Structure formats: structure tokens, C-alpha cells
Amino acid sequence: MTKPCIICVAITGSLPTKENNPAVPITVSEQVESTQEAFEAGATIAHCHVRNDDQTPSSDPEKFARLKEGLEKHCPGMIVQLSTGGRSGAGKARGGMLPLRPDMASLSVGSNNFPTRVYENPPDLVDWLASEMRQYDVKPEIEAFDLSHIHQAVAMHRDGRIPGTLYIQFVMGVKNAMPADRDAFDYYIRTVQRLAPDAQWCAAGIGQAQIVVNEWCVASGGHTRTGLEDNVRLDRDTLAPSNAALVRRVVDLCEKHERPVADWRQARAMLGLRAAA
What we know:
Order of helices and strands: EHEEEHEEEEHEHEHEHEHH
Structural class: alpha/beta
Helix content: 25-40%
Radius of gyration: 17 Å
Largest sheet: 8 strands, parallel, barrel
Shape: globular
Strand content: 15-25%
Number of helices: 8
């Protein structure tokens, strides 16, 4: 396959702590350093959350601004994708960083179960987040935790609420949500190709499913996500030493399946993004 593979690195998330793995970057400076290493290893998208000093999730736009500024300085051309996920805030606070005009932002278009709670994404909030992304020229990355989320994303694309090239990420392996099931994965791909043939797709596997889903994506012609947000281990017994180590593992899969790794220029072109800052 000659289609370049875009590698997204989810650098910290809102759950893993230094107790889980000392390599998890928490402060803005740690996140910038970790992302720069991952960028140099082959990642072209940085999926970003921010934390408070006590490692708890934060929705502070000022922290997002400092992180975005640091990434643009030290990772020139890299695609900055900020999270509007529900662990970092509630209601419209989840979109408080969108006026910063990142290249992308995550957008969950439906609700589902998480390990201990319901991940609520009511239609009015989804529509508001999508409208803010349109206003500030931020490209949504659809986080599909369920088949219905793919259908909803396509409907929003068709009626103009999500303009441009549709980018859908399958999230698999979250407890109480969609498991990392190969038949479901293949059906997700067929659904995207049937309903939105011009869309780009990727997938993220959680925990031990990370490397499995990475390989499914690479071998199937899609893009993929890795990083310490989703998995703190290289294998059952070994902690991942860095985000860069997880990125290099995906680069190895690309070599195995004879897929070129997309550079930031190719990634921006495939996703229909504006020029780098």
C-alpha cells in the first residue's frame, strides 16, 4: 500500500498518572518535551488534554494556550488537536479552548457507557461544539465509540454541521463500550466507505488492545492513534518509556506492512487542513 499512514499520539489524557507510569507527562513543559520526541519519531497529530498541578483533568483555556504555543514552537508543522472530552469539564466549558483555533479538536457525537459512568454527549451540546469549531475553523475529529456515532457524523457532514473532509476515529477497548473486535472493526470500515467514501478514518485501541488495533489500521489502509493516554505499557510486563517509544512501535508496523509514514505536510493535505502556523 502506498497511502501514507497518519500517526496520532495521545500524549497524556485525563486518567494515567505518574503512579501508573512515571513517563506520563503532566505539566505543560513535560507535555511539550514528550510530544517533540514523538513528533521526531513519526507522529504528526498531537491529541492534547491538560492537567492541574495535582494531576487532575483541567479545562483551563490558559493551559491549553501555553501547550499549543509550545507545540507550535518545538514541533513546527505538527497538527495540534485539543480534546473537548467530558472528563476535563462539563457543558460548554468543554469547548472553552476552541477560540484558540487549534488545527483540530475531538468531537464525540453521541453518548455511551464508560467504565464507571455514562459519557454524556447530548445533541444540543454536540451541535454547539460543532458550531464553535466551524466558527473558529477547527476541524473535528469524530470519536466514534459506537456504530451509531458513525451514522450521526455522516448526517452532520451531509447537512453542513461538519464541513470539509470527514475524519472518523473508531475507539475500541473502553470497558462497557465497543470492545476491540475485528468483525466490528471491519464493519466500521465498510460503513464509512459506504456512507462517506471520501472520508478518512483511523482507530484507537485502549490498554492491551492498542498494539492490536494499531496493526489492524496499518494493514487495512487507515490511520492510527497511539500514546500514553490509551496505554502505559509496551507489553504485559514492561512500562512504555515514552510516547515516542509507542510511536516507534507503530512506525515498525508501517515498515512491516510496507506503508509509508505520513509527514506533517502529507497529513495536513489528506485531512484538508489549513497551512501550518
